[in-house]
Each structure stands twice: as C-alpha cells, then as structure tokens.
C-alpha cells in the first residue's frame, strides 16, 4: 500500500511476505482503520506477481482478539455488517496462499481470520475460542460456515455457544490447525513451509477448486474439477521445467 499502515507490518522474505498485526497493547484487536488497511494490503499482495505466499501472524503475546469493539459506531447494526470491511472475506478471495501463524490467543474475529487462511500453523502457546455468544453478538466474517467444515458441526456448536478455549494440542487433534510447533520456531517453521509451496500457476487454480468444491455435492465437485482440467492448456515445456525444479528442490532438502 502507498499510504503508511497503522499497527501493521509487512516484511519481505524473498517472494514470501510476512504480515504482522502489531497492536499488543490492545490484544491486537483490529480497529476500523486497521481492518481497512489489512484488506487493502491483502489485495495489493494478491495482485503482486512477485509475491508467492503470505504468512499472517500477530505480535506477541496474542494473535488477535478480532474486532476492536471500542471502535464501533453505536449506530452500527446487523444490516450494516453485510457491507462492512471484512478481513475474512478478503482472505478467502485471495488466489495467493496464506499461512496463518497463530502465536497466542486467537479469539472470535481472529478465529474467523485464521479459518479463512489457506491453512494454520500454531505455536504451543496458541489458544482458540469463539466468544461471540458470550459478548452477545453473532459472527459476520464466516465463522458458522468455516468452523464446522474444519472440526465438525457438533464440536463447532459447542465451542460457539460456550465460548470455551481449546489449546494448541487439542486444536491439532480436532483438525483445527495443520501443525503445532515450539513458540520460538513458529515464524521460521511457517516461512519454511511457505517456501515448500509450489511456484506454478496451478496452486491458485487448485485452491480455487477447493473453495468452489466446498459449496457443491461430491459429484458436482468432481464435475467442476473435470471441466477445469479440460479447459486448461497443457504445456509440455512448462511441465518439464516444473518437474526439474521440484527434483532440484528435493535434492537440496535431502542434502540439508
């Protein structure tokens, strides 16, 4: 973004961008300005061909508490929520893979953000909760659609109407996160995992098939994949180069 960002940092690690929510004194809660800037930054990164993967994290000790409720217009209502700035929706619209590196408490809107990323890596210090019901509000960034798809509807119902926390180990057990690593290894591990993501246009297409397939029946998802493959041009030279690049990377990893 061309304008200075408030409480957000974006660092380059080659073709990977590390985005950090940096407002620890407010539990990294997202003000209206921060939500707008985060969505704008994600849009810019997704449009930048030099960016292969985004890693999203928070400044210790928390990931994010979600919306800063002290920064909401008292006239704001449920109808307005449908037209508000929505980081979850911005993340789900991205073709660029996003790894969410959860370093601490990940609550309500923060959980919606994490669930909207491509996948989640958690620190051993991470904790997850949906506290919307305790606050007397309902989710608007996609939680009731995303959480049951991640952990099953029965577990999702329990978490949402109790507001209870689950620790990182439990989150891994129930399928909420992909990996749990030592706290000091969270960012190095996430950047290393990001570097393992293929650098071909097929990545965005595959992620799009997953997103669209979630809304379809099994047969509908199969048909979507088949029709997408039939429309995609095959370039033998590109395929061969990708194979050579993959083999070279594997040899490098084996020698490390």
Describe the structure.
There is one protein chain. The chain is built from 12 helices and 10 strands. Helix 4 packs across helix 6 and helix 6 (143-151) packs across helix 7 (153-162). The protein is globular, with a radius of gyration of 19 Å. It starts with 7 loop residues before the first strand and ends with a helix. It is 46% helix and 16% strand. Strand 2 (16-21), helix 1 and strand 3 form a beta-alpha-beta unit. The strands form 2 sheets. A 6-stranded mixed β-sheet has the order 1-2-3-5-7-10, sandwiched between helices. A 4-stranded mixed β-sheet has the order 4-6-8-9. It is an alpha/beta fold and 256 residues long. It has helices at 32-47, 78-81, 87-92, 109-116, 132-135, 143-151, 153-162, 168-173, 186-195, 202-213, 218-231, 236-255; strands at residues 8-13, 16-21, 53-58, 62-64, 98-102, 105-107, 119-123, 127-129, 166-167, 179-181.
Strand order of the largest sheet: 1-2-3-5-7-10
Through-space gap between termini: 37 Å
Radius of gyration over all CA atoms, rounded = 19 Å
Helix share bin? 40-55%
Shape: globular
Tally of individual helices: 12
Listing every helix as H and every strand as E from the N terminus to the C terminus, the arrangement reads EEHEEHHEEHEEHHHEHEHHHH
In CATH, the topology of the largest domain is named: 2-enoyl-CoA Hydratase, Chain A, domain 1
Q: Count the strands?
A: 10
CATH class descriptor of the largest domain: Alpha Beta
Helix- and strand-based class?
alpha/beta
Number of domains: 2
The H-level CATH homologous superfamily of the largest domain, spelled out, is 2-enoyl-CoA Hydratase, Chain A, domain 1
Strand-residue proportion: 15-25%
The largest β sheet comes out as: 6 strands, mixed
CATH architect. name of the largest domain: Alpha-Beta Complex
The pLDDT mean sits at 89
Unreliable stretches, pLDDT < 50, 5 or more residues?
Answer: none
């Amino acid at each position: 973004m061309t304008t200075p960002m408030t409480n957000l940092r974006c660092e380059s690690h080659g073709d990977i961008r590390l985005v950090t929510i940096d407002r620890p004194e407010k539990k990294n809660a997202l003000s209206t300005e921060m939500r707008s800037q985060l969505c704008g930054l994600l849009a810019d990164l997704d449009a930048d061909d030099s960016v292969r993967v985004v890693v999203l994290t928070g400044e210790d000790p928390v990931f994010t508490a979600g919306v800063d409720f002290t920064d909401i217009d008292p006239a704001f209502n449920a109808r307005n929520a449908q037209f508000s700035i929505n980081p979850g929706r911005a993340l789900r619209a991205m073709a660029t893979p996003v790894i969410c590196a959860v370093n601490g408490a990940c609550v309500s809107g923060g959980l919606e953000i994490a669930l909207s990323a491509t996948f989640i890596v958690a620190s051993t210090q991470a904790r997850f909760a949906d506290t919307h019901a305790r606050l007397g509000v309902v989710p608007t960034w996609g939680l009731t659609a995303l959480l049951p798809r991640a952990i099953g509807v029965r577990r999702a119902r329990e978490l949402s109407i109790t507001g209870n926390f689950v620790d990182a180990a439990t989150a891994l057990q129930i399928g909420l996160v992909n990996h749990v690593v030592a706290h000091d290894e969270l960012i190095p591990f996430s950047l290393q995992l990001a570097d393992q993501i293929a650098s071909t246009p097929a990545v965005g297409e595959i992620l799009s098939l997953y997103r669209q397939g979630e809304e379809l029946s099994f047969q509908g998802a199969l048909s979507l994949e088949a029709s997408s493959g039939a429309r995609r041009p095959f370039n033998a030279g590109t395929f061969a180069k990708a194979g050579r690049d993959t083999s070279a990377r594997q040899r490098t990893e084996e020698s490390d």
